[in-house]
């Protein structure tokens, strides 16, 4: 089993200044853009565990609506992002497939919250992920990852379809784009901070 570094207050110290390390999960269904997101946001070369998808997996991994994807994450993605003098985010991307669900136990340990990436064209695929996050009691924000050419859905329709609580943040991003991905993360961090108050 993969387990993350032990994270507690002031777990990470750099340049003599105490920094609080915050473990954040980047979750979402198969091929929603988790690895891309961690790669876009990480200030260190991201650890990724991509393997080429083979014909053997064709019947297991639902490739419907997935564009030009040749690899999949088999263990996790890992990246780091310093957001202030005091706070460092450790980003853990979970594998998207249902068969890796047993890893969530380890991944969720010590996490403060999760960013749930959602493809608006495959909304139903997000139900199981959101159920899992709620099961682990993690606070989360939704980041709608807009793939090229997909229609923009209204936020209200999306909230209703995903059965979100009124205070759950919903933002739009492109996992390949640093600015929109950063604002999605910042929205999550603010939400987590507000809840902690
Ligand atoms: N157009 C567009 N393509 C994207 C975006 N984000 C990711 N992609 C592409 O979508 C595909 C899937 O992205 P990944 O980052 O591998 O998705 P993943 O969620 O890590 O996939 P698994 O680990 O296999 O579940 C890749 O070909 C990406 O280049 C996006 O915002 N817009
Ligand atoms: Mg991946």
From TrEMBL:
Pfam family, any one: ATP_bind_1
Entry coiled-coil feature ranges: none
Gene Ontology molecular function terms on file: GTP binding; hydrolase activity
Keywords linked to the UniProt accession: GTP-binding, Hydrolase, Nucleotide-binding
InterPro entries listed in its UniProt record: Gliding_Motility_GTPase, Gpn, P-loop_NTPase
Family: Belongs to the GPN-loop GTPase family.
PANTHER family for the chain: ATP/GTP-BINDING PROTEIN-RELATED, GLIDING MOTILITY PROTEIN MGLA
UniProt-recorded name of the protein: ATP/GTP-binding protein
Organism: Streptomyces mirabilis
């Amino acid at each position: 089993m993969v387990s993350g570094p032990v994270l507690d207050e002031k777990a990470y110290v750099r340049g003599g200044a105490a920094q609080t390390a915050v473990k954040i999960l980047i979750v979402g269904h198969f091929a929603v853009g988790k690895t891309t997101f961690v790669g876009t946001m990480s200030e260190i070369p991201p650890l990724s565990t991509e393997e080429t998808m083979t014909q053997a997996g064709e019947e297991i991994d639902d490739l419907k609506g997935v564009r030009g994807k040749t690899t999949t994450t088999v263990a996790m993605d890992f990246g780091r992002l310093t957001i202030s003098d005091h706070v460092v985010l450790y980003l853990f991307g979970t594998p998207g497939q249902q068969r890796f669900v047993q890893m969530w136990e380890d991944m969720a340990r010590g996490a403060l919250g999760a960013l749930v990436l959602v493809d608006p064209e495959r909304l139903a695929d997000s139900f199981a992920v959101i159920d899992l996050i709620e099961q682990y009691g993690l606070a989360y924000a939704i980041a709608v990852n807009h793939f090229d050419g997909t229609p923009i859905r209204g936020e209200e329709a999306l909230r209703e379809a995903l059965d979100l609580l009124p205070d759950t943040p919903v933002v739009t991003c492109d996992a390949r784009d640093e600015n929109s991905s950063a604002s999605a993360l910042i929205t999550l961090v603010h939400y987590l901070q507000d809840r902690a108050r």
